[in-house]
């Protein structure tokens, strides 16, 4: 009942914004850029936070298991070497991970990364869940991320359903084994140039100076 009430309250805001973007990369693209990290399985919650007001602006999940992906509900970041299927980006190498953070961190926003170890089976569960989630409507990122996490039996009672990126971040930070790091950048607010530069990088998988 409470969730239904919250959805009803949010409906006018949702209708005022844009709908979901339905992007679906081909099997060939996904296979071409698939990336397997040599790090242990993990789950990272990214929260974009205002440096001016402390308000939360966006939530996303990086899942590292049999491959590394980002679930970026209603996000605006994109890269040809990280093919997207309905808000899930594949091929998340270290370069792509840093690109994602650099795109969001700028003079008015910083990115909080909260990472926790998980098992391979848990990573499989999460990946299957985000891949069947479908595209997310604008302004519904924290709602979608919290719903994904609550669908996991091992997280259901520890994560609230919420529309607030900050409330989600606070609850996630209290989970066992979570480590936290904030990423700051002095780039100007207009980050369209950042995206353009990222997509002109010379070669998939090469090292970056940052």
Give the gist of this structure.
The protein has helices at residues 2-16, 27-33, 94-104, 120-131, 141-150, 165-173, 192-198; strands at residues 42-50, 56-64, 68-71, 84-85, 88-89, 109-117, 179-183. By secondary structure, the chain is of the alpha+beta class. Residues 1-16 form the signal peptide.
Basic shape = globular
The beta-strand count equals 7
Going by helix content, strand content and strand pairing, the class is alpha+beta
Number of domains: 1
Protein name: Lipoprotein
Keywords: Lipoprotein, Signal
Signal peptide: 1-16
What does this protein look like?
This protein has 7 helices and 7 strands, in the order ααβββββαβαααβα. It is of the alpha+beta class and 210 residues long. The protein has one domain (28-199). The chain has a 7-stranded antiparallel β-sheet, with helices on both faces. The longest helix has 15 residues, at 2-16. It is globular and about 40 Å long. The chain starts with a helix and ends in a 12-residue tail after the last helix. Residues 1-16 form the signal peptide. Keywords: Lipoprotein, Signal. This is Lipoprotein.
Give the topology, please.
Blueprint: H1 2-16, H2 27-33, E1 42-50, E2 56-64, E3 68-71, E4 84-85, E5 88-89, H3 94-104, E6 109-117, H4 120-131, H5 141-150, H6 165-173, E7 179-183, H7 192-198
Antiparallel strand pairs: 1-2, 1-6, 2-3, 3-5, 4-5, 6-7
